[in-house]
Prior knowledge:
Elements: H1 17-56, H2 59-64, H3 72-76
Amino acid sequence: MAYSTHSAPADNVFxxxxxxxxxxxxxxxxxxxxxxxxxxxxxxxxxxxxxxxLQAKSDxxxxxxxxxREDIVHHVFRDLYWQ
Length: 83
């Protein structure tokens, strides 16, 4: 004689899986947002460095690059503000 047991899941069992899944999604959103903010900050920092390096050049050096001192900011940020 063979015996077999089978237990079906009860309908009223409380599972924490959806709770942990929601918490995980929340952390994902937060970390993705922080990563985007850091990327934007790095890009802005790079642009400020470029503008500072150009400001440190002499007028003759800027002329060789085809720039005037008053156009440095326009040149560095041209793709963002001036079109």
